[in-house]
Structure formats: structure tokens, C-alpha cells
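@channel sequence for tomorrow's demo:
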Amino acid sequence: MEQKKFDVNSLIGFILLGAIGMYWIYSNQPTPEELEKAKIERIQDSIQAIQKVATPIVTQEKTIEVLSDSLKIANAQNDLGSFANSSTISSEGTTVIENDVLRLTIANKGGQIVEAFLKEYTTFHDDPVKLIQDNNALFNINFGTTGNRILNTKDLNFEPTLTKNGESQVLSMKLKVDANRFLEYRYEIKPNDYMLDFGIRSQGLGSVFNTSHPVNLEWDLT
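C-alpha cells (generated this afternoon):
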């Protein structure tokens, strides 16, 4: 039986091949700088991917918001005609005018006083004396427009502007068609005075009001 001999040359060849393989693996490993660069590139790729998805969503939301606003304005024009601008003003807003003895709160909706109390007087239970509160007062003008609409100021939103007239506070509440055409309620309160100056005027509404429909004023305090 022939005895197998150990081939030294083969062993050396395997060792050389292994050494070359280990050197190739080691020499091709990324440096710390290359690893950090690859990490940053992965993060940037992720951000760009998110932005590509998010941008259409934001655009879609803005488009929906614009369409929603346009629909609201279109509906308001259908319901309110020339006074559609009223729908763009918050119905929840209020403005306070006051002096040392009297405090009044006027609402955007209806342009009317929704709270009035006397500062120097209290009830038997030491509560402030409120002349107007909890919707116990109504001030409304009912009128017709040239578009054959019947409107009530109590349902419409007025735009407030608070100014001073000397020592007096002046609140202008305007129900606008535009900047030059409006119905205005004007409230003026003087220092240390329980009396309130109140006036109503209109400007440029001759072509808006339907003169064949009577203008009715309602005032009620319960």
C-alpha cells in the first residue's frame, strides 16, 4: 500500500491564499470617516423620502383648505348676497368698552350689547348688578336686499374698531358690503358716565337695500 506523503508546497500555497484573502477583506473595510459619511447619506436619503411623501400631503391639505374657504364664501354669497363678507368675521368675538362706573361687552354677532354691568353697585348677595346678561336683550334690524333676501342683523357678524374720542371710548361695529358700503352701529362711552351714546348710520347702501321692503327695528330686554 502506497503511503501518502505530506505536500509542503501545497500547505504553503494554502497559507498564502489565506493570507491574501485576509488582507483583501481587511483592506476593503470602510474607514471610520467612510462609515460616518455613509450614515449621513442614509439619513439624508430618509429625509428626502419623507419630504417627497409629506409635500403632496401638505399641498393636498392646503388645496382642501382653499376649496373649503371658497365653498364657504360661495354659500355665504348665496345666503347673504352683498353682505357675504359677514361670514369671514368670527361670530364668537366680543369687544369691551368701559369707564369707572360702567362696563359693556359688545358681540361681533349682531353688533349688540351682550353684557352690561354697573361697577359701583352690587346686589343683596354682593354680586355685580348686570343689566344685560345671558341673552336677555335683543337688538335687531330686519331688512330686505335687492337680491330678494330678507336679512336680520342679529344673525350677521359685524367688524369692530375701537378708538378714542378725547377721553371717551368709541366702538364702531360695521356690517360691511365692502370698505365704502356698510351699516354701522356706533357706541361711545364717556368717563364716569352711566349714559351711553348710540347711533346707527348707513353708507353707500342705496343700491343694496330693497326699498319696497320695510325696515323693522326690534328692541327687547327681559
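heads up for whoever presents: The chain has two domains: 32-86, 90-221.
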